[in-house]
Amino acid sequence: METPHAAAYRFLYDGDHETILYAVMKQLHIWPNRADYEDYLQEARILFPEIYVAFPENPEEKPHQFLAYAQQKLYWALLDKLRQERKRVDRQLPGDQEELLTAVASDDDILDAIGQSDFRQYLLKLVGGAGKTGEWRFLVGTLVDQLTADEIAQRHGVSRNTVYKWRRSLLRRLVHTLTPPDNFLD
Questions:
Q1: Cα 186–chain centre separation
Q2: Contact criterion met (CB below 8 Å) for 4 and 60
Q3: Going by C-beta distance under 8 Å and a sequence separation of 6 or more, which residues neighbour residue 70?
Q4: What is the rounded distance in angstroms from the CA atom of residue 13 to the CA atom of residue 44?
Q5: Which of 44, 78, 162, 176 has the fewest CB atoms found within 10 Å of its own CB?
Q6: Is-contact 78 42, C-beta < 8 A?
Q7: Of 186, 176, 138, which is closest to residue 158 (Cα–Cα)?
Q8: Cα separation, 8 vs 73, whole angstroms
Q9: How far apart are CA 51 and CA 84, in angstroms?
Q10: Is-contact 41 25, C-beta < 8 A?
Q11: Coil, strand, or helix at residue 93?
């Protein structure tokens, strides 16, 4: 009695059925001059029996449908292998270490962040006492929660135009509060 894997390999090497392996390799642009060509061809040969067994009907009775099915399955499987290989290689590539070093916060960046934090607290106190609910929601959404206008609108169940009105109202209040009076220098 023949095992399913033996039947699959017999089917593969019977006639010109093996050409689907080469067709898949060609579709994926894996050419014979590539260093890992034989590896991917062997992967396709190893995957073939699993595809043969997974075919819902009898591959011997419907060889054309099975070959189309097998070609698509092999394409997807080898494409996944290519993606995995590319990810693995990308993670191992030596990078520019300067980029990592510049990403580390300098003392000035930390002081700027602290200053930003103090300024945010000042704005929250300024608007918190006299501001309207919408202004407060916009200020907290942008400064504290770091949300966009769309996200603020979704959170509070309003339109984006309403959020933009809150912003305009807040800006008017801040300009009025933070600008010195005309006779300030006199």
A1: 59
A2: no
A3: 20, 48, 51, 52, 55
A4: 13
A5: 176
A6: no
A7: 138
A8: 15
A9: 20
A10: yes
A11: coil
- Name every residue whose Cβ is closer than 8 Å to that of residue 178 and which is 6 or more positions away in sequence: none
| Per-residue pLDDT of the chain in tens (186 residues, 90 and over written 9) | 678 888 888 888 888 888 999 999 999 999 999 888 899 999 999 999 999 999 999 998 999 999 999 999 999 999 999 999 888 877 765 655 565 556 555 655 655 665 666 666 666 666 666 667 788 788 778 777 788 889 999 988 999 899 989 888 878 877 777 666 665 555
Element (H, E) at 174: helix 160-178
- Cα first-last separation, the chain: 107
Q: Cα(126)–Cα(136) distance, rounded to whole angstroms?
A: 10
Place of tokens 């609108």: 153
Cβ neighbours of residue 54 closer than 8 Å, sequence gap 6 or more: 73
Residue type, 73: K
Residue with tokens 């396709």: 44
